[in-house]
């Protein structure tokens, strides 16, 4: 997103905007196969509705036999409601009990992270950062308790922010917490937050 994109994404009169939130967990359980699971939710501030879907993807390197399935959901009273029928009871429970990373994340200690690379472009505005996290970090403990993270390796936090993400200003934020052991492996949690006009 550039400064021009931000300026062009103007809000029409009366438009309160739409938040899109996203969290996924991606893992290479088998060589050449990526399993990716998570949820997307669109919160329309005009209609006060929150609708989206839970997705289960199995992606092969050659893209043959890749599989993708979406299950419609909505949120009411801060609770996920499954709209599609799901036969697999464990999957059904994962969907209904799903929490976005932003619902339990706590970055009050962000300033204490060491060995960080930070880049700021005040003209956009845009912010990029990369930090080495500790296994003692509460966010890391939360993720280990919620997901099947088999490595003891401390993760890397990668952060990208465009815009202000407040008021009537469009914005985009992406967080990736990467537990991958090596370059060709994948074990990460991605969290996205996007604010855009709801009316086109």
Description:
The protein is mainly β and 200 residues long. It has one domain: outer membrane lipoprotein receptor (LolB), chain A (Clam). The chain contains 4 helices and 10 strands. The chain has helices at 3-8, 89-96, 101-104, 138-146; strands spanning 18-30, 33-44, 49-60, 67-76, 79-82, 117-121, 126-132, 156-163, 171-178, 187-196. A 10-stranded antiparallel β-sheet has the order 5-4-3-2-1-10-9-8-7-6, with helices on one face. The mean pLDDT is 87.
Strand order of the largest sheet: 5-4-3-2-1-10-9-8-7-6
How many beta strands in the DSSP annotation?
10
Instruction: Give the amount of beta strand, in percent.
Output: 35-45%
Distance between the termini: 18 Å
Secondary-structure-derived class:
mainly beta
Average residue pLDDT: 87
> How many domains?
1
Helix content: 10-25%
What is the CATH topology assignment? outer membrane lipoprotein receptor (LolB), chain A
What is the level-2 CATH architecture name? Clam
Rounded radius of gyration (Å): 18 Å
Overall spatial form: globular
User: Are there runs of 5+ residues with pLDDT below 50, and where?
Assistant: none
Q: For the report, how would you describe the main beta sheet?
A: 10 strands, antiparallel
């Amino acid at each position: 997103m550039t400064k021009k994109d931000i300026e062009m994404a103007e809000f029409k009169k009366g438009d309160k905007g739409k938040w899109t939130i996203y969290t996924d967990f991606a893992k290479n359980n088998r060589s050449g196969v990526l399993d990716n699971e998570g949820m997307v939710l669109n919160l329309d501030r005009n209609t006060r509705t929150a609708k989206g879907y839970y997705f289960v993807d199995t992606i092969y390197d050659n893209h043959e036999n890749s599989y993708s399935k979406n299950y419609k959901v909505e949120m009411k009273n801060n609770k996920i409601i499954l709209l599609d029928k799901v036969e697999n009871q464990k999957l059904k429970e994962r969907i209904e009990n799903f929490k976005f990373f932003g619902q339990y994340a706590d970055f009050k200690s962000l300033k204490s992270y060491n060995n960080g690379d930070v880049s700021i472009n005040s003209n956009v505005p845009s912010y990029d950062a990369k930090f080495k996290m500790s296994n003692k970090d509460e966010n890391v403990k939360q993720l280990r308790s919620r997901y099947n993270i088999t490595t003891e390796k401390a993760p890397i936090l990668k952060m990208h922010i465009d815009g202000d993400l407040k008021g009537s200003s469009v914005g985009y934020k992406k967080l990736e917490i990467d537990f991958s052991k090596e370059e060709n492996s994948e074990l990460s949690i991605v969290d996205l937050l996007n604010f855009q006009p709801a009316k086109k």
